[in-house]
Specification:
The strands form 3 sheets. The chain has a 6-stranded mixed beta sheet with strand order 3-4-2-1-14-13. A 6-stranded mixed beta sheet has the order 5-8-9-10-12-11. A two-stranded antiparallel sheet has the order 6-7. The protein has 2 domains: 97 residues; 245 residues, Deoxyribonuclease I, Chain A (4-Layer Sandwich), CATH 3.60.10. With 363 residues, the protein is of the alpha+beta class. The termini are far apart. Helix 1 runs antiparallel to helix 3, helix 1 packs parallel to helix 4 and helix 7 runs antiparallel to helix 9. A hairpin with a 2-residue loop joins strand 6 and strand 7. Helix content is 40%, strand content 21%. The protein is globular, with a radius of gyration of 25 Å.
């Protein structure tokens, strides 16, 4: 009788532990999509107002998908395949709200209506090239009617090359605008006071007469969060593990940077809302998807990529691993409609250009 007792007890114990492990795996599997959804809500409704969440906005969103394959394998290992529904929900939350996947949709252009093509491109001061040949080749590939260049300044060589292709070219602050149409007026905004210091508003307002009528354009480039983010990264692994990277000095640097970016976004966002003519906003916003600042000041405009684009539309940074965030954008008021939108492919800059075809809205 003793051998029989000795063989049954381990089996019962094994089954008990397998049941406990299976239950824990199922609990984690259900909690995972809930955590992803809460994370998306935190980005959208808290965002830059709490610096740790603000930093998370600029992390590659695919990172949040790392538990997904592990949990799928774990559910299969503990023989709970019916709980795979939780990972299907997690995949949907990951792909759509967090990573910004946009499915193609019909955007039929009216054959008889005039169309203008807009290209916006952060050329990163030539990205190591002095002749801008690669950037110009990328622009020429799309034959835009209006070109907005950010982070360039009044480069005489580039301006002269653009004047060979476009009727009017202007350079102001860090922007260059080239257009086939007549520029009626150009306005450089006043400086902004933030924490007692004067800062450039980092946008340019233009009124342009074009086949769609008079359009007000805002070419924009709010300040980058790069410096504030690098302060955390510079601490290295040791700084992250010890918590020194998350000290009050780095937090304050992030808040100051985010406050300036918010003031710049509010300046051109509020001004654009007050316009009586149709408005197009184009440029490097430095605001990723789900940004609180983006939602607060620009959600009242149509996003060209969401209206006529497909895929993820990531534009930055180019490099070995490819872009992981969408910060280069083209917006428009409802008097206009997007009939085509695409993202460039050239790595001539650390940004990809964005291109949109726009018509008047259908009545």
């Amino acid at each position: 009788m003793e051998p029989a007792v000795q063989t049954r007890l381990p089996r019962r114990g094994q089954k008990k532990w397998l049941a406990i492990v299976g239950t824990l795996v199922c609990v984690v599997a259900v909690a995972y999509p809930v955590a992803l959804l809460l994370g998306a809500c935190a980005f959208r409704f808290i965002g830059e107002r709490w610096w740790l969440i603000g930093i998370g906005l600029y992390v590659p969103r695919i990172v949040f998908g790392l538990p997904l394959p592990v949990l799928v394998l774990a559910l299969l290992a503990v023989r709970r395949p019916w709980f795979l529904w939780s990972q299907a929900v997690a995949a949907l939350v990951l792909l759509f709200p967090l990573m910004g996947l946009t499915l193609p949709r019909p955007t039929l252009a009216s054959a008889n209506a005039p169309t203008i093509r807009i290209l916006s491109y952060n050329v990163a001061f030539g990205y190591g090239a002095s002749d801008f040949a690669a950037q110009l080749a990328e622009m020429n590939r799309y034959t835009p009617d209006i070109v907005f260049l950010e982070e360039i300044g009044p480069d005489e060589k580039l301006v002269s090359q653009l004047k060979e292709r476009y009727a009017e070219v202007i350079a102001a602050d860090q922007f260059v605008v080239a257009t086939r149409f007549h520029i009626v007026s150009t306005t450089v905004p006043d400086t902004l006071m933030v924490r007692g210091h004067a800062h450039h508003a980092r946008f340019l307002r233009l009124e342009v007469d074009c086949p769609l009528g008079r359009i007000v354009f805002y070419v924009v480039h709010p300040i980058s969060p790069r410096e504030a983010l690098w302060r955390v990264v510079w601490g290295g692994r040791r700084g992250l593990l010890t918590g020194k990277s998350f000290g009050p000095a780095n937090a304050d640097a992030f808040y100051e940077n985010a406050e300036l970016r918010e003031r710049q976004a509010s300046a051109f966002g509020d001004a654009a809302q007050r316009e009586t003519d149709p408005v197009i906003i184009a440029g490097d916003t430095n605001l990723p998807d789900l940004s609180w600042i983006l939602g607060r000041y620009l959600s009242g405009f149509q996003d060209g990529f969401l209206k006529a684009g497909r895929g993820f539309g990531y534009t930055f940074p180019t490099g070995r691993y490819g872009p992981w965030m969408r910060i280069d954008r083209i917006f428009a008021t409802t008097a206009l409609r997007f009939v085509h939108f695409e993202v460039g492919t050239s790595h001539a800059s650390d940004h990809l250009c964005v291109v949109a075809d726009v018509q008047r809205a259908l009545l």
